[in-house]
Design goal:
With 170 residues, the chain is an alpha+beta fold. It contains three helices and seven strands; from the N terminus they run βαββββββαα. It has a five-stranded mixed sheet with strand order 2-3-4-5-6, covered by helices on one side. Strands 1-7 form a two-stranded antiparallel sheet. InterPro entries: YceD (IPR003772).
Amino acid sequence: MRNPLLVNALEMLRRPGTAKDVEIFVLPDVVDIDDPRLVPGTEIAVVLNCESLSDGIVVNGHIGVVFQGECRRCLTPVGASMDIAVHELYQLVLTDPDAFEITNDQINLAPMVRETVLLELPDAPLCQSDCLGLCPTCGIDLNHRKCACGGEATDPRWAALDGLRDQFPE
């Protein structure tokens, strides 16, 4: 199967200053991403501009993905689309440790797309920045209503430190 993210760079390498636009939509498995945070069946939008320089090819643009998950505080389902900015360098001879390699006069965008998406996907998203979370005692969602349990549960692992606080009042 042909890799849709393989871009012929021969003409760009011959003439510095040459540019090529890439706009493609691929499923996550094309870039070897099997991550439950990505909404199943949605495509990754790759919109890039590749411009050749004397020492490589600069790739600028955006990658669009749709993610899903649970709020880290209240466990409400969370989902949103992300537009990730891309600024990468491809080189024939790697002089920059962060650059990607140009192989056989082609740039393979798949590893860059994979790395960029996986680094930007949120590990612990929030449903809203001021999410109150769940009551630690009764488990009620404090974003929707107040609980009647009194709420202040202390972790028994902190009991020794709480005892010190009682011995040395401020």
